[in-house]
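From: lab user (bench 3)
To: helpdesk
Subject: output format question, protein + pyridoxal-5'-phosphate

Hello, I'm new to running complex predictions and I'm not sure whether the block I got back is the full result or only part of it. Here's what I submitted:
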Amino acid sequence: MSKAQETILEIDLSALTHNFNYLKSKLNAKTKFLAVVKAFAYGSDSIEIAKHLQSLEVDYFAVAYAKEGVVLRDAGITTPIIVLHPQPVNFKTIIERCLEPSIYSAKVLNEFIAVAETESQTNYPVHIKFNTGLNRLGFWENDVEYIVSKLRVTKSIVAKSLFSHLAVSEDINEEEFTNLQVQNFKQIAKEFESKIGYKIWLHLCNTSGVINYPDTHLDMVRCGIGLYGFGNSVKEDQYLKPIASLKSVISQIHKIEKGETVGYNRAYKAKGFEKIATVPIGHADGINRIYGNGNGFVIINSKKAQIIGNVCMDMIMVNITNIDCNEGDEVIIFNTNHKASKFAESANTISYEILTSISQRVKRVFIP
Ligand SMILES: *Cc1c(COP(=O)(O)O)cnc(C)c1O
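Helpdesk reply: Thanks, we reran it on our side. This is the complete output you should expect:
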């Protein structure tokens, strides 16, 4: 790993391979693996990540929106891709680019059938989403008859899978609730299969579901955060490797006297003689203003440097009074040792949010 000379997000592809193999080792041989690469592959770069996972023979990808799937198709990704949260305005594009929509409501079902018929499709694969307790997207259990009646009278689409999403799979204290979701889903699947008259793939688990509910992997699992190195628990985190390191550099060092202030709104006031460093990363890069005013810290020469004052658009100032360092020295925001999940905690958030917040302005650098 090279020393950063500007702000970079370094992505370790061997760590991605490691995480993929670790998660796969939890599955039995016939369970398929879907890699969730929505939101720029959780901030890392969906094209590079999808290419790497495609080379590892992942079975499926999922993105949230049609546009994200188009980016992957343009990059030459040929693995099937589910669009988890499609909008009717994009249905024609979805078909043109061989993307497979999640069908989560009657409106979406009817509008997708209409577009598939106009586009002269037969048996276009779709994935039927059921709500089993998250109350976010999906049909309800009493919609099964309606969906099947619609599928019976069209040749344009075919239900390739049924799926649902767990609300609290990371929290074992909520096992009872998760088990209710599982039972509800299995009941829906049974009714659906008996009405439609054929077997259909079922999938339910995200990363924490894979880890905490080994009997519920069904025909496919959908892993996102685990691939990127976070297991939502201290125990699992030790087996996974964070793939992304956010690094920067000291642009300038200032020495200030007691009472002098730092940054906009004069939000920080020196308590004595202090040394501060300016670092070229700000809220436009994904360092939310909540990290300012002493909440977050970065690492310089293995020591913690508090983020002081308000986070600016393009930079932060950090306190280096007790750190031996120079202009040009590397600054670690997070890496394998100083985890993104820990950094996120200082702003009351989670790894998912900090990773997906790193803006496109930050250069991605890949390590094979
Ligand atoms: C984002 C998402 C996932 C991935 O969840 P992780 O906790 O990141 O593994 C799986 N399924 C659906 C429907 C999602 O929206």
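A quick orientation on your result: The CA atoms of residues 12 and 367 lie 5 Å apart. Let us know if anything else is unclear.
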